[in-house]
Each structure stands twice: as C-alpha cells, then as structure tokens.
Amino acid sequence: MDVVLLGAPGAGKGTQATAVAREVGLLHLATGDMFRDVVARDTPLGREVRQYMERGELVPDELTIQMVVERLREPDAARGVLFDGFPRTVHQAVALDEHLERMGRLLEAAVYLRVREEVLLDRLSGRWTCQSCQATYHVLFQPPARPGRCDRCGGALYQRPDDQRETAVRRLKVYFEHTLPVLEYYRGRGVLREVNGERDIASVRADLLRAIRQRVPQV
Fold first, then answer.
1. Ramachandran region of residue 104, left (φ > 0), alpha (ψ -120 to 50) or beta?
2. Catalytic residue set
3. Which of 84, 62, 70 has the alpha carbon at shortest distance from 2?
C-alpha cells in the first residue's frame, strides 16, 4: 500500500506523518529526509542533488523522481510508503504512478490536510526567538509568560526573517500554485480524501487514519 499525505506549510503534516505511518505499518518517506540521506551517501545522484541544495535552488523534478524511485527499491519500502512532501507537482505525481505501476504497486490514497490560509499564516508567522539564548516561542501554542521576553533568560524576543508574515505569504503562494493541480489530479483519479486540519492533534490523526482505512480497509 502506498499513500500520499498532502498539506501546506503549517498544516501539521510533519506532526502527523510519523505517527500515522507507524499506525498503518508504512515507511514514512519525507522529502527533506530523503534529500539529506541521498546527499550523505555521496553517490553521483547525491553529489548532483547537493549542488542544487548548496545554491539554494529547487532540485529539478527529474532528480527528485530518480531519488524517490531509488528509495522505493530498498527492502524497507517493500510493504508500502507514506509519502510526505512528495509529489509537489503534477509531473511528479504522474511519474510516481508510472513507477509504482512498473513495480506492481498502486497509490491507493492521497489525503489532504485542509487548513484555511489565514490559519496557516497565523501558525507560520507566530514564532518568536530569544536574541540571547535562542529559545523559541509561539504566540498561539507556546507564548512567553511576559510578552516580548524570554521565560528562560529574560532576553528580548524577535522574529527571524523566515518566520515573518511576509515570508509566510510567499511560501504559501508558491505551495498553492504548485499543489492545487496535484489535488485535482488525485481527485480525478478518485483517490483524494480531505481532512480538516484545524482541530486538535488527536482528532486530526483519527480522521487521517479513518480516511486511509476507507481506501484500504485492511490496514
């Protein structure tokens, strides 16, 4: 069984993916982890991927697909995979289906964590960091006892550029431009399920598991 978990930055995908994969007995395959792993192996593919990462550029679709296909051939991926962060484009989604078919496998579910954009922005732009000890806080989930001051050392809190709202707006714009067509692709295939990602962690996880089991009752 192979499953794709989709969700915008801030949707809670990373929080849910490891636990859900463990619950249904799948290998959790996160794109970021795959990139780091293939680079660490120092293979020709790893060296090529490293060049893009060091320049801060997106790794091209073909390299990303090649990396995923190589990973799928490893023994721990044989029972099935929960893909986290892949595919990001329709081209990648089509290529994944084609390669799985050649392996005698089938993508059986694509589950989308649905969160409104204003909620995503609040989640992404709510982090503050201590200038002195680098402790982190979040205005929604872990606020400091005193606004603007670190609980640990009393240092002033500031927002890193990556945590500012303007950056979050850009990140989400890029995500939705690339991923909305992927959702439509899976909807057209009849495998897309949507889960409300705005509730507490336990409720979201229960619905994710339910959505997967609707598609694959035996897990």
1. left
2. 13, 88, 127, 160, 171
3. 84
Mean pLDDT of 133-159: 95
Q: How many residues does the chain have?
A: 219
Confidence (pLDDT) at 182: 95
Could you tell me if 168 and 124 are in contact, meaning their C-beta atoms sit under 8 angstroms apart?
Answer: yes
Q: Give strand pairing partners of 27.
A: 81
On average, the pLDDT of the chain sits at: 91
pTM: 0.83
pLDDT at 54: 75
Q: Which residue has the tokens 């593919």?
A: 45
Q: What is the identity of the amino acid at 159?
A: Q
Q: What is the pLDDT of residue 40?
A: 85
Q: Are strands 192-196 and 107-114 parallel, antiparallel or unpaired?
A: parallel
H helix runs in 25-116, sequence order: 31-40, 44-54, 61-72, 90-102
Q: Which two tokens stand for residue 144?
A: 């400091």
The candidate with the shortest Cα–Cα distance to 83, out of 1, 202, 190, 196, is 1
Return the pLDDT at 48.
87
Letter for the amino acid at 82?
A: L
What share of the chain has pLDDT > 70, as a percent?
98
Q: Which residues of 147-180 are buried (b: 16+ CB within 10 A; e: fewer)?
A: eeebeeeebebeeeeebeeeebeebbeebeeebe
CA-closest candidate to residue 204, choices 85, 123, 112, 138: 112
